Amino acid sequence: MKIVTRYITSSILKTAIITLLVCVLLVLAVELFSSMNKIVTSSTNIKDIIKLSILGLPEYLMMVASVSFLFATTFFLSQLQANNELIMLYNTGLSYFKIASKIITLGVIVTLIFFYFSETIMIDAKLEHAKLSDELFGLSGTSDSRNITLTDLDSDYVIHASRFSEQNSTIYSVTLIKNSRDGIDLRVSADSAKYSSEGYWIFQNARVYQREGERLITSFENSYPITDFTLEPRLFKNASNDVTTMERVDAINYLRRIKTLDRDTYYSAATDFYGRIFSPFSILILIVISVSMNYRFKKNVFLFSIIQSLCTAVVYYVSQMVFTISSSQGVTEPYMSVVLPIVIVTVLSLIVRSIGGKSG
User: Fold this and answer.
1) Cα gap 258→253, rounded to integer Å
2) Nearest CA to 153 among 234, 235, 218?
3) The model's pTM
4) How confident is the model at residue 17 (pLDDT cuts 50, 70, 90)?
C-alpha cells in the first residue's frame, strides 16, 4: 500500500513541478514583455530587472499552481486508464475511491503548504515588488500614508493624521476626537503620536481640550498617553483598503470597522479578502474535479480527459469572476464569491461523471 501511495504522490508531483516551472516562466515572460516600455524609458539596469522578476515569482507561482495540479492529476489518471494500470491496481484490492482519496489527501497537504506560502512569503514579496516597481519606474517610493482618517468603533474615537511613518510607527499632525451622546468629550491636537509597546498611542506636544459637565478644561502636555485608543499602526499604513497585503488579524479588524462605516467599501474589501484567503484552496477544488471526471474513453483518453477537466475549470473560473464582481458591488454577500463557484463545479462534475458512467 505504501508503494502505491508513493507511486501516486511522486507521479503527480513530478508532473506538477514541471508544469509549474513552465507556466511560471511563461507568465514571467508575458509580464516582462508588458513592462518593456517602462523598462526601456526608465533605463533600468539588468540587476534591478532580475530582482524585480525574482520578487514577482511567488505571486506568479500562486497564479498557476491550481491549473498545474489540475493538469498533473488529469495526466496521471488518464495514463492509468490508457495503459490499463487501473486494472492492476484493482487486482491489488484497491478501489477507485481509495485511489481518489490518496490523491485528495495529497491535494489537502499541497493546499495547506500553498496557503502558508501565500500568507507569508508571497505577501512579503508582493509588497517588496510593488515598492521596487514604484522606485524604478518613477513613482513615489515611500511606504508612508498621507491624510488618513480612521474611526475606532470600540471606543468612539475619530482620528485624523497628515502622515503615517511605517518605519517608526508614528503619525504626524494628529487630531483625535472622542464622541459621546452629548457631543465631543475630548479633543487632542498633537504634533505627533507614537504607538507604544503596551499597545496604545502616546501623543507628543499635545493640546488637550476636555469637557467635564459644563466646564471645558484645556491643557498642554509634552507626553499624553491614551490607553483606550488602540488602533493598530498597520491600519494607518493600509488606509488604501488593500486587505490583500494586510496581516490577517488587521484585515479582519479593518473589515469589522468598515462594515458599519461604509458598506460599499466593505463589500469590495471583503470580497478581496475572501479571494485572498481561499485562493490556495482552488488547488484542492480542481484536484477534486479531476478525480471526479470520467476517464473511460475508448480512444484518445488523455486528450478527452484534458478537454473535459479544462472545460470544468473554465466554468469554475468564469463563475468565480462573475460572483466576485457581483459581491464587490453588493449584489451578493462576499463569501458567496467563494461558495457558489465551488457548488456549481461540484454539481457539474458529478453530472458529467454520472452521464459518463451510464454511457461507459
Assistant:
1) 9
2) 235
3) 0.71
4) very high
